[in-house]
Structures are given as C-alpha cells and as structure tokens.
C-alpha cells in the first residue's frame, strides 16, 4: 500500500517555478531516494509534504493525511529530519526527546522506553544526560535521528542525512536506515549525493526542473549507471 503519494504538484515563487508537475509514490519497505542537483525543487517538495508551504496545485497524501489542510496531523504521524538540523544546545538528549514526545502528545512511558531504546540502537546511551553543546556533530545527528523515529513512524522524511558526518557514523546511519525501511516502513531520503542514493536506496527518482525526470530501481544499478542516468537528465 502506498504511504506517500504526490500528484502533479506545482509551486512557484514569483516567476520561479520551483516545483513543476512533481508526481511520485512511495510504498512500504522502500528506501526511496529523491536525487537532484541544487535548485531542483527538492526542499520545496519536502516543505509541501510537511505542510510548511501550501502548493499552488496538485495533491499530496501522506499516510492518509493531507498536509495542505491538516499539517499538524501529518506532522505528528510522520518522522521528519530536516537538513542540517541540530538539537537545542541548552538541553540534554533525554530532555530534548521528552520535549519531542510532549509535542507529539505521546504517552510518557512510551517516550521513556523509546528514548532508552533509540539511544541504545544508535549508540548514544552514555550521552543521554550530557548537554548537546558537549556532543560531537555525529552524536547530535544521532539525537536528531532519534527524534524523527521516536514514535516508530511508518514513514520518515529525511533531507541529506549524511552531510558532515565522518565515515564511521555515515556507515552506521546507512545501515540503520536500510534496516528500518526493510521492516515494512517507508523512508524518503532527499540527497544530491549519487553514491549515497546508489548505496542505500531501493528506488531512486531523479529530480530536475521541479519534477521527476527518471526513476530507477537500484537493485541492479551501480553508482556509475545512476550517474549516467543522472547526467542524461540533468543539465
Ligand atoms: P538544494 O539542494 O540547493 O537545497 P533544492 O532541490 O532543494 O535545492 P529548492 O530549494 O526547492 O531546491 O529550490 C527550487 C527553486 O526555487 C530554486 O530556483 C530556488 O532558488 C527557488 N526558491 C526556493 N525557495 C524560494 C523562496 N522562498 N523564494 C524564492 N525562490 C525560492
């Protein structure tokens, strides 16, 4: 069953057509890569999916919700990890994740269990009571991943998950995203990194000029194949 469906989405800023006929579906079990160069319309699409901006035209279905008319409902059901987001410096991971649980109106016991489980799974359990100012960028990114996954969402939207992470943390995050999608969830990853898309995604939509211009199942494509397709479609 489709968990994310976008049909003929359009959004302009003045004369700039940021999104121009964007259509795609994401199913359970998929790690879908939204691969495109700077300015292709990826961020504008993600902001439409999370209800931060209202598109000019088109329809969006996110886990049966419409972010255009019910953004709060959409945001409480999906997991969202924006690009370059960092946790508040004046809180510890535990305090921040408790706050996120409150905002999502989750049961306190579920939140407490979730914090311990995700900290252990992502390997920051020894840092739960340390202020974020004293954590490395990689540790902060793990906390941001934990906030996106705290309520075990069936769909997670992630913008550039591996930016500024060292190779070891990149590998850990890649493995984690792969296993989460494989457990009958859907993970949507926006990136301009072809190697990342070829490495972790099950299917890739290549984005240019505000729409998907090609789609590839990654199972039998190498990053060279994907690069060739990318260069065929992107100026
Ligand atoms: P990047 O990878 O650089 O983040 P992107 O694929 O996410 O790029 P968008 O940020 O969606 O692309 O931008 C698409 C187009 O819309 C670009 O030409 C951009 O300059 C323009 N744009 C985006 N936001 C605005 C805005 N608030 N006002 C005017 N133009 C905008």
UniProtKB/TrEMBL annotation:
SUPFAM superfamilies: P-loop containing nucleoside triphosphate hydrolases. It comes from the Archaea. Coiled coil: none annotated. Keywords: ATP-binding, Nucleotide-binding, Transport. It holds the Pfam family ABC_tran. The keyword Transport applies. This is ABC transporter. Residues 4-234 form the ABC transporter domain. It comes from Natrialba hulunbeirensis JCM 10989. The keyword Ribonucleoprotein does not apply. PANTHER family: ABC TRANSPORTER ATP-BINDING PROTEIN ALBC-RELATED (PTHR42939). InterPro entries: AAA+_ATPase, ABC_transporter-like_ATP-bd, ABC_Transporter_VariousFunc, P-loop_NTPase. GO terms for molecular function: ATP binding; ATP hydrolysis activity.
């Amino acid at each position: 069953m489709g968990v994310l469906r976008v049909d003929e989405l359009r959004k302009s800023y003045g004369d700039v057509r940021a999104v121009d006929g964007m259509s795609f579906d994401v199913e359970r079990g998929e790690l879908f890569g939204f691969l495109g160069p700077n300015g292709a319309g990826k961020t504008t699409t993600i902001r439409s999916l999370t209800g931060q901006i209202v598109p000019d035209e088109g329809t969006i279905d996110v886990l049966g919700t419409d972010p255009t008319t019910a953004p709060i409902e959409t945001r409480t059901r999906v997991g969202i990890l924006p690009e370059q987001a960092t946790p508040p410096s004046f809180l510890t991971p535990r305090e921040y994740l408790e706050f996120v649980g409150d905002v999502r109106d989750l049961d306190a016991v579920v939140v407490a269990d979730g914090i311990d489980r995700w900290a252990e799974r992502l390997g920051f359990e020894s840092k739960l009571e340390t202020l974020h100012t004293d954590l490395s960028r990689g540790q902060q990114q793990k906390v941001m991943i934990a906030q996106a996954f705290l309520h075990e969402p069936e769909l997670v939207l992630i913008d550039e998950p591996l930016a500024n992470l060292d190779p070891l943390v990149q590998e850990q995050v890649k493995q984690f995203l792969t296993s989460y999608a494989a457990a009958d969830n859907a993970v949507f990853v926006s990136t301009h990194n072809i190697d990342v898309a070829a490495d972790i995604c099950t299917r890739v939509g290549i984005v240019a000029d505000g729409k998907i211009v090609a789609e590839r199942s990654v199972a039998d494509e190498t990053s060279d194949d994907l690069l060739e397709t990318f260069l065929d479609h992107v100026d």
